[in-house]
Amino acid sequence: MVTLNIPTINDDPLDFDKLFALWNQANDDFLDVNVNFSRCYFLRQNAVAFLGGLAHLIQSRYGTVTFNWNSLQDRIRTNLEQNGFMAIFGHAGGPWTGNSIPYREDAIEDKDNLIDYLKTKWLGRGWVHVSDRLRNEIVGRVWEIYANAFEHGESAIGIFSCGQHYPAHHELKLTVVDFGVGIPSNVRLFFRDDPRSRFLSAASCLKWAFESGTTTKPNGTSRGMGLGFCENKQGQT
């Protein structure tokens, strides 16, 4: 039995390093894991989506995952009940409507259902006042993230999402996680005939992937508009 001690997790770069460290600790076959939250005093939506995916990854490798719900701080418990995370993992109570965008798991691509989730559970709650046209534009861009994950991610366990509204900070956030092969691996494979491909850094692979018109699909045949359409340029809204 391995204990994963979940630290306080925000969404700064160092917090993602904490998540990757948890993945490294649990990245063994046939591993039995106990998840303990006693050292965690804040847990953002990125951690919720990540932990849900990590639990399913462990289970897909014939391991077991036990969440120590009694170790939760009260406000984290409230949030995990509210967004439905605890109910999905077998704990009674929740979800209910609040500042959380529900935690969800998508084993297969269901575009209509996901578009409805983005329109009604994320942007349709009155937290952000936008026109229908702009809302559809934003939803379309976020859908590209899901579409690329389904098409290129090769994740056997699906895709995991969670969001949160932070009124005090005027922030509305959504995290989408998959445990597939990753963009850098796909890009290096795409350029495998180039002997320099193995030296491509993860950063250069990501830069290429977010350029307009690029795709790793054969002959440039991709279903969507590509990740270049999703990129946020500084100074643009």
Task: Describe the overall structure.
- The protein is α/β, with parallel strands linked by helices and 237 residues long.
- The protein has two domains: 2-178, no CATH class; 183-229, no CATH class.
- It has eight helices and six strands.
- It has helices at residues 13-26, 45-60, 74-82, 85-88, 111-122, 132-152, 183-190, 202-209, and strands at 2-5, 32-36, 64-68, 100-106, 159-166, 171-178.
- The strands form two sheets. It has a three-stranded parallel β-sheet. It has a three-stranded antiparallel β-sheet with strand order 4-5-6, with helices on both faces.
- Helix 5 packs across helix 6.
- It is globular and about 55 Å long.
Instruction: Give the count of helical stretches.
Output: 8
Distance between the termini: 47 Å
Strand residue content: 15-25%
Strand order of the largest sheet: 1-2-3
> Which structural class should the secondary elements be placed in?
alpha/beta
Spans where pLDDT lies below 50 across 5 or more residues: 233-237
What's the order of the H and E elements? Answer: EHEHEHHEHHEEHH
- Taken together, the total number of domains comes to 2
Helix residue percentage? 25-40%
Give the overall silhouette.
globular
Give the averaged pLDDT, no decimals: 86
What's the count of strands? 6
Q: What is the CA-based Rg, rounded? A: 19 Å
* Biggest sheet overview: 3 strands, parallel
